[in-house]
Design a protein that fits this description.
single chain, seven-stranded mixed sheet, alpha+beta, 29% strand, 7 strands, disordered C terminus
Length: 170
């Protein structure tokens, strides 16, 4: 599997992958995290324009999409019922979704992110047991609760990739 930046030409495939991911969430007992239209096309386009959107490919086929954003995330400025593991620079994984055609997608995405940042943060809905499992089995620690832009709570996770980081965030 390879990772590359997403392009505007990928948009239709990304929308399809996100639609599939929403169906899988509902089937797994998580009907409210992404509802019927998250992420909206405008958010995906913004991620692409800002060069934060990445796709996982194999033999030219797009298997997954995710946003990886370096720098402070405004929704992470305040955390309740806990603390971040440190206050060092970090990257954030957002909007990860897979087509369901291949296993090991999260590990592939995480390896990519770990090469870019010494600290990685992520969050997920309390009903998203799949994502909680993936985060926890891949070294993330629960740190508390944050609130996303619409005011709904999320479980906040943090992973320190390297305690003596020399990896720049650019």
């Amino acid at each position: 599997m390879k990772i590359r930046k997403a392009t505007q030409n990928d948009l239709e495939q990304l929308l399809s992958i996100y639609a599939y991911a929403r169906e899988q969430m509902r089937a797994a007992g998580n009907p409210s995290q992404w509802k019927d239209s998250y992420p909206p096309a405008e958010q995906i386009i913004t991620d692409i324009q800002n060069q934060n959107s990445h796709v996982v490919t194999e033999s030219g086929e797009i298997l997954a999409v995710f946003a990886f954003i370096l720098g402070d995330d405004p929704t992470y400025a305040r955390i309740e019922d806990g603390n971040w593991l440190n206050n060092e620079p970090y990257g954030t994984i957002h909007r990860i979704a897979a087509s369901g055609r291949k296993k090991g997608i999260f590990r592939c995405c995480l390896s990519f992110c770990e090469a870019k940042a010494a600290n990685i943060r992520a969050d997920t809905h309390a009903c998203n047991g799949t994502m909680q499992h993936l985060l926890e089995t891949n070294g993330f620690q629960k740190c508390g609760r944050i609130y996303v832009a619409d005011g709904s709570p999320r479980i906040a996770y943090h992973k320190i990739v390297c305690k003596t980081a020399s990896t720049p965030l650019s």
